Amino acid sequence: MNLFDLKGKTALVIGGSSTLGGLMAEALAAYGASVALTARDAAKAVPVRERIEAAGGQARCFSAEATSKADLERLLGEVEAWTGGVDILLNCPGVNSATPFFEIQEEEWDKIMDVNAKSVMLACQVFGRHMVDRGQGGSIINVSSVSSGPPLSRVFTYSASKAAVNSMTQFLAREFAPARVRVNAVIPGFFPAEQNRAILSEERVASIMRHTPMNRFGDPSELQGAIVYLASERASGFVTGSLLRVDGGFGAMTI
């Protein structure tokens, strides 16, 4: 028995054009899932689709605004027309900022909260209802952050938004469990990517290394196993409401 066989499943990856989102999508495809790659501009997800197809997998690119419920409802219809439905939802849109607390403007707060938290709530409404009503179970995986608690310095709004993701994950795990729809979150440590490049100063990197027992950044490919595990009902069928750390020990460090 292959614990990680995803053949016959459709995975929707919101934020599938990003560095981490793309690699997680590739992992789902490698284990047999048909992958719907979603980005505000579908063309940005084409390189990920091409890598998936070159490896023998199946993927298609879709455009959608993750903070628009109407757009997500349209997206659901398009994916249903392609494969018949959504079995796995991976929520990984993200935006960050290093603005000092007293300088944060309402516009910045609203943007980060919309992209990082509101999008997760809306996607869980649209695709969670689809999974519950469909009656075939499902897996929702939210991408959180080590800054979700305790919060990291200098990223106030980002930390608050990811704390909200953790709370939603555990709340919805309870709500959706009777329908066999599992809701979990992955908490990545430090994986250098475009969205956090601005805050990784030399001083910041030194501090991160002091607080990471493995004393290195994560390689993006090291998130792939966690995603496939949580996506597979065979592998993690009794796992819901979990916050799975992939952080090199960062969350275990005190002094």
UniProtKB/TrEMBL annotation:
Coiled coil: none
Pfam families: adh_short_C2
Oxidoreductase in keyword set: yes
InterPro entries linked: KR_dom (IPR057326), NAD(P)-bd_dom_sf (IPR036291), Sc_DH/Rdtase_CS (IPR020904), SDR_fam (IPR002347)
Keywords: Oxidoreductase
Keyword Oxidoreductase attributed: yes
Domain Ketoreductase, residue spans: 9-191
Superkingdom assignment: Bacteria
Family: Belongs to the short-chain dehydrogenases/reductases (SDR) family.
Name of the protein described by the UniProt record: SDR family oxidoreductase
